[in-house]
Amino acid sequence: MQQYQRYLSFTRLLLIWLFVVILAGSIVRTTHSGMGCPDWPTCFGNAIPPTQEYQVRFQADHEYRKGQFIIYNDSLKYANKTFKSGAAYNPADWQQYEKNNYAKFNVYQTWIEYINRLTTGVLGFIIIAHIIWSWRLFGKTRRSILYWSLSLSLLTAFEAWLGKIVVDTNLEVVKITLHMLFALLIAAVAVIIIHKVKAAPKVVGKQLKWLSTITLLVVLVQIVLGTEVREQIDEISLALSYTSRELWISRLNGWFEVHRDVAWAAAILCVYLFWQSLPHKVLQRTAFIILACVAGTVLLGLILMYANIPAAVQPLHLLLSSILIIALFAYRLKVK
After folding, report:
1. How far apart are CA 49 and CA 36, in angstroms?
2. Is 67 left (phi over 0), alpha (psi -120 to 50) or beta?
3. What does the UniProt entry say about where the protein is found (predicted)?
4. Would you list the domain boundaries of the chain?
5. Would you say the C-alpha torsion 94, 95, 97, 103 has a positive or negative sign?
6. Phi and psi of 319, rounded to 5°?
7. Nearest to residue 251, comparing CAs of 239, 269, 266, 264?
8. What pLDDT is stored for residue 268 in this prediction?
9. CB-side exposure of 329: number of CA atoms within 13 Å?
10. For residue 50, what is the enclosing H or E element?
11. Residue 76, helix vs strand vs coil
12. Rounded CA separation 331/277 (Å)
């Protein structure tokens, strides 16, 4: 029994780390750091990113490794061989980077993106350890848990590939949104594993079953609408050179109003679900998480709407929304 508890604790750690990855990704998007590393999986051709601008500029009499990047004449180049540079730039030593030409360097954006990649890398090691533990613990008894654990690796591999595509396509907004939604899917699989290992009896209640299902679907729709609004914000902010924040909301189309109205409907459903859960001890903890998340999400949403979208609030809003949808999914698994 103790080994199962340790396994559950490790799976919860995996779930928590997933939310760290989601938060890190949101910070990258909010700070416009997605192209801080213009190549993938390296950063300017290095395992560890540069810390000063001169490192990505051409230097005379300097040893360059094959694949190392520089910015030259507002263009992104990489060394086509290992060589020592002469006194002047020699075009024969360099190749134009074709996947994108994001020829800018900002040390803060570079390191924010790099830290984001590190969190995803740590997640990969956690999932590998989880698969090994699942195989040792359930490989001969409850193979479905092993299969769910294996699916984590497949989804994470796809997520990493999608991250590469996001960089290669210079942050196309639709691909960024898919990147985030797949992170939520990975979190849902972790919740399924926890539910299967615990094998706790479900609460029988037709009303709770339908109420939790409807609430989950409404919040899911709300998150999709939120991603549509976020994509518009990305385009508007870029058009305004990330200035004049007081104009951003006024330039949103009708999807913003739909997003706002559905948010209130989702909040009301979550509060009612919490109220209906109080008589059931097995549901109370998850219900309290749902209530706390919806309260925080609504508060942060109001701050975003009336305080000109403060940059620091955006990642927290996404994080609480992510925890909310996953908590609702966990709640739904406990009811039949």
Report:
1. 10
2. left
3. Membrane
4. 1-36+106-199, 53-96, 202-336
5. positive
6. -60, -50
7. 239
8. 96
9. 19
10. none
11. strand
12. 10
CATH of 53-96, one of 3.30.460, 2.20.130, 2.10.10, 2.60.40: 2.10.10
- Neighbouring residues of 83: CB distance < 8 A, sequence distance ≥ 6: 63, 64, 93
pTM of the model: 0.87
Residue type, position 178, single letter: L
Alpha carbon distance 181, 173 (integer Å): 13
Nearest residue to 156 via CA among 132, 197, 176, 126: 126
User: How many whole angstroms separate alpha carbon 8 and alpha carbon 232?
Assistant: 40
**What is d(CA 218, CA 321) in angstroms, rounded to the nearest whole number?**
12
Q: What pLDDT score does 174 carry?
A: 55
User: CA-to-CA distance for 157 and 334, rounded, in angstroms?
Assistant: 29
* Structure-token match 């520089």, residue found: 70
How far apart (Å, rounded) are the C-alpha atoms in residues 109 and 176?
A: 17
Q: How far apart are CA 141 and CA 8, in angstroms?
A: 17
260: exposed, middle or buried (Cβ count in 10 Å: 0-12, 13-18, 19+): middle
146 beta partners: none
Q: Which residues contact 14 (CB under 8 A, 6 or more apart)?
A: 123, 126, 127, 130, 152, 190
Q: Which amino acid is at 49?
A: P
Angle between helices 2-30 and 173-198 (to 10 degrees): 170
Strand-pairing partners, residue 95, are 78
Series of mean pLDDT values for 10-residue runs along the chain (336 residues): 88 95 89 87 91 93 93 92 92 90 90 93 92 90 90 84 65 61 89 90 88 95 86 84 86 89 95 94 94 96 92 92 96 93
Cis? peptide before 41, omega within 30° of 0: yes
Task: Tell me the one-letter amino acid at 62.
Answer: H
Residue pair 247/240 in contact (Cβ under 8 Å)? The answer is yes
Q: Distance of alpha carbon 5 from its chain centroid, rounded? A: 28
Whether 335 and 208 have beta carbons less than 8 Å apart is answered as: yes
